[in-house]
Amino acid sequence: MPDLKVVGLDVDGRHILCEGDDPTQKYRLRVDDRLRAAVRGDLVRLNQTQIDIEVKSVLTPKEIQARIRAGASVEQLAQQADADISRIERFAHPVLLERSRAAELATAAHPVLADGPAVLTLLEAVTSALISRGLNPDVLNWDAWRNEDSRWTVQLAWKAGKSDNLAHFRFTPGAHGGTVTAADEAATELIDPSFERVLRPVARVAQLDFDAVEHPIVTEPAPEPATESPRPAARARKSKPVVPAWEDVLLGVRSSGDR
C-alpha cells in the first residue's frame, strides 16, 4: 500500500492535498467527520455511516449554551447530539441559572393592561387569579428563555385537577421591575381582571326553579267500604178489605162503624 504525504490545503479549504512517491501524482482528500474521527482515534465514530455522522454532529460549548438559552433542555441536547449528559450539563449550568434569574425577575414585573401597567406585580396578579378560582398558588413552576429578538419569554406552569396548564408572557426588564405582557389567552385570563372568560370554563348545570308555586296534589277520597243498605221497612200487611154486611149497606152503616 503506497503512502501519501500531505503537501497542503486546497484553495476551497475542504480538501487536503497529498502526493505519493512520484511527486507528479497528486491526490485530494476530503476533510470530513470521518477523517477528523480517524485523526482523533475515535473508532466508534469512524465506524458510523456518513448519514449518522451528519445527523449527530458534535455541539460546541457555544452552541450548547445558545440552544439552552433558547429554551432547550439538557436532556434534549444530549439525545440530539448523542453526547454524554454530563458534558452538556457542564456548559449548560450557567445558562440555566441565567434563565432561572430572568423568570424570578419577571414575577416582580408589572403586567401591562389596556389602561397601562397594573399596580400589582405579575406574581401578585397570578396568585389572586388562582385563589379566586379555588386553585393552589403555592405550586407554580416558572421558566424563561431568550428569543431570537433577544427578548425574554416567561412560562408559568400549574395544575388544575389532573390537567397541566401553561401561560406565556413577554418580559421586558426596566425600572420598577419592568413589565410583562400576555403572550397567549391563558396569560390574559390570569392578569386581566376584566377578562370575561374563566381559566377553565365549566359547563353550567341546569338550575331548578325552586321558586315555582307548588300545586297541591288532589287525590280522590278512597271509597268507603260498602255497607249493606238498610232494608226497607217491611210493609205492613194489608188487611183484607172489610166487606160490609148487607144490612150495613142497606142501613148506610160505614165500615168503621160510624153512621
TrEMBL record:
The record's region (Disordered) falls at 216-240
The top of its lineage is:
Bacteria, Bacillati, Actinomycetota, Actinomycetes, Mycobacteriales
Task: Provide the protein name.
Answer: DUF3071 domain-containing protein
Ranges where the DUF3071 domain occurs: 1-171
Q: Which Pfam families match?
A: DUF3071
**What InterPro entries is this protein classified in?**
DUF3071, SepH-like
Superkingdom per UniProt: Bacteria
Write down the species.
Answer: Mycolicibacterium komossense
Which residues lie in Low complexity bias regions? 219-233
